[in-house]
Input
Amino acid sequence: MPKINEKLEEILKKREFVSIATVGKDGQPNSVPKFLFRGKGAFLYLLDYVAGKTILNLRENPRASVSFMDLDTLEAYRMNGTAHIIEKGPVFDAVLKGWDQKLVQLATDRVIEAVRTGKKRGHYEMEMTEHLAVIKVRIESVIKIGRRGDIWKETN
Output
């Protein structure tokens, strides 16, 4: 089973969002940014609103594709796998607790940037609904797309 290596883990630590693509039973694709909590081992942990299209699609079809870019190297990554929705329990509680800490840091960074640059923002605080679910994606393949279009793939 492919795992998130140290390099990918470092890239993911710098990201607040990744894109996840799903398909519902109607065949319509859905690709949207989601909050990234952590990528470690063979799993990605994302946060989503319980009533969103992504959650509805994953309930019908658990296959998902998560993509992101390393802005330092301009290399793109796609991780395909099977998603499991977690709405309660110790994993859910641990992710939400960690996410609260991540939100505080994100809001702090935004305020510091505004003071340094004078950039105005509509909201500095990170308001989140309480109706969240954790999307745990078991990674089954990792595809890297280089700057010149070269492709590297690791699968089961």
